[in-house]
């Protein structure tokens, strides 16, 4: 199983980035997907989730700036981030979760660095 995150980089405040996470080895359409982030010295926090039926949810502080989406045919989930601020600087991780026969199956990607300069 692999979750390959990409699209991070250095951007100026106010800019945008689009993160991608492409998966292999899982039945992607059966998984809920999420993006988390972890800033230096802080705990990992949930950014956004998208269910297998494309129902979405966001951290309250990020609603309106970030958009999560998925395309099952491409085994890919995206995170569009607009209006970035230095507080968005973090390593962003994709996460896959499903339950099957009362068992939890979850996987993490390797993370992609997002740095927002002021």
Q: What order do the SSEs take from the amino end to the carboxyl end, as H and E?
A: EEEEEEEEEEE
First-residue to last-residue Cα separation = 37 Å
Major β-sheet annotation: 7 strands, mixed
> What structural category characterises the helix and strand content?
mainly beta
* Uncertain parts: none
In DSSP terms (H or I, runs of 4 or more residues), the helix count works out at 0
Question: Approximately what portion of the residues adopt beta-strand conformation?
Answer: over 45%
Task: State the shape.
Answer: elongated
Total E-strand runs: 11
Question: Into which percent range does the helicity of residues fall?
Answer: under 10%
Overview of the structural elements:
By secondary structure, the protein is mainly beta. 0% of the residues lie in helices and 58% in strands. The protein has no helices and eleven strands. The strands form two sheets. Strands 2, 4, 5, 6, 9, 10 and 11 form a seven-stranded mixed β-sheet that branches. A four-stranded antiparallel β-sheet has the order 1-3-8-7, with no helix packed on it. The radius of gyration is 14 Å and the shape is elongated. The mean pLDDT is 97.
């Amino acid at each position: 199983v692999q979750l390959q995150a990409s699209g991070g980089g250095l951007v100026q405040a106010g800019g945008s980035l689009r993160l991608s996470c492409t998966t292999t080895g899982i039945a992607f359409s059966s998984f809920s997907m999420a993006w988390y982030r972890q800033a230096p010295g802080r705990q990992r926090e949930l950014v956004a989730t998208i269910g297998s039926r494309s129902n979405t949810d966001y951290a309250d502080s990020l609603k309106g700036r970030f958009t999560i989406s998925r395309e099952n045919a491409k085994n890919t989930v995206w995170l569009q981030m607009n209006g970035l601020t230095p507080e968005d600087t973090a390593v962003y991780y994709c996460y896959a979760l499903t339950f099957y026969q009362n068992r939890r199956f979850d996987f993490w990607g390797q993370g992609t660095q997002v740095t927002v300069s002021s």
